Amino acid sequence: DWTTVNVVEEQVALIRAQVGDKRAICGLSGGVDSAVAAALVQKAIGDKLTCVYVDHGLMRKGESEQVEKDFVAATGVQLKVVDAEERFLTALAGVSDPEQKRKIIGREFIRVFEQAASEIVAEAGASGESVEFLVQGTLYPDVVESGGGTGTANIKSHHNVGGLPEDLQFALVEPLRKLFKDEVRMVGAELGLPEEIVQRQPFPGPGLGIRIVGEVTKERLDLLREADAIARAELTAAGLDRSIWQCPVVLLADVRSVGVQGDGRTYGHPIVLRPVSSEDAMTADWSRVPYEVLAKISTRITNEVPDVNRVVLDVTSKPPGTIEWE
Ligand code: XMP
Fold this sequence. Notes:
The protein has helices at residues 4-19, 32-45, 63-75, 85-92, 98-123, 140-145, 181-190, 195-198, 218-237, 291-304; strands at residues 23-28, 49-55, 78-83, 131-135, 171-173, 249-251, 257-261, 264-273, 276-277, 285-286, 308-313. It is of the alpha/beta class. It folds into two domains: 4-198, HUPs (Rossmann fold, 3-Layer(aba) Sandwich), CATH 3.40.50.620; 211-313, GMP Synthetase, Chain A, domain 3 (2-Layer Sandwich). The strands form three sheets. A five-stranded parallel beta sheet has the order 3-2-1-4-5, sandwiched between helices. The protein starts with a helix and ends in a 13-residue tail after the last strand. Bound molecules: xanthosine-5'-monophosphate (XMP). Residues 102, 145, 155-156, 158-160, 202, 204-206, 246, 281, 318, 322-324 line the site of xanthosine-5'-monophosphate (XMP). Xanthosine-5'-monophosphate (XMP) binds at residues 102, 145, 155-156, 158-160, 202, 204-206, 246, 281, 318, 322-324. Catalyzes the synthesis of GMP from XMP. GO terms for molecular function: GMP synthase (glutamine-hydrolyzing) activity. It is an enzyme of class 6 (ligase). Residues 2-200 form the GMPS ATP-PPase domain.
């Protein structure tokens, strides 16, 4: 029967059987899923696992520092940090299509992992060995929404399912593939991960890259990072973190609207707030955030973020809207 103890024991045995005494890497995104997957694999194979944190330049404000600190402090795992901002932004230049963005991001992640893998082997003085396994925190809903790995997305190809390159050299280890998010959180708690990690709101692997409707550029990312940081700070201050599943903050970079700020006309971009409540991300409802909190966020974003002159609230459930805009 389903208990977290059973899930952990079963998965640890399966991972040992699959990986043996070979080496594995796990991409950490800062989210719950990759953290729990990493902790499970670490329990199974110890220091044959190295975690890799790819800073793709699409993270939110302060997030990279958090991954480097929190997760290592909690698990003592070996961590390799790769600064890949330029690489990702170059690969994404000129691209607006959401599925295309995910394919590019999925591919670039793998290229970075390949390079990191050979460095890890070299650093360990283990020439002749290679890293054969890649651990991913793929959940059941990711598989379903990506079309079950059939190559055709039902809804969207999550970057780590439908977005993987065809010449992938790693065998995948995906110990969470049958679990829903609430189950993953329970398994994480069972493994001793701290509350800050286990209760973290979901954040997609492609990061802010799929929260800019239009082309992804450094300037737009910086704008969105500021707006997102304000929204997150105010929602946290209002004590809403646990009642809101997640709140994407989206920059409509391809849309302009007229505004008036100071004494003059502006022609800027709208920011969308998309707070949702959900059990498993398969369906969701828009969160009834108190007006005062929304007002504060709106005032702060339009005052503090240049080029943004409008804040709009998304009041669509899922279905028909998805949680993310792309
Ligand atoms: P949607 O937008 O499909 O999102 O309603 C459902 C959940 O999945 C997250 N999401 C992703 N996570 N790679 C990820 O790792 C992706 O490509 C991706 N797309 C969406 C989204 O944030 C929500 O929690």
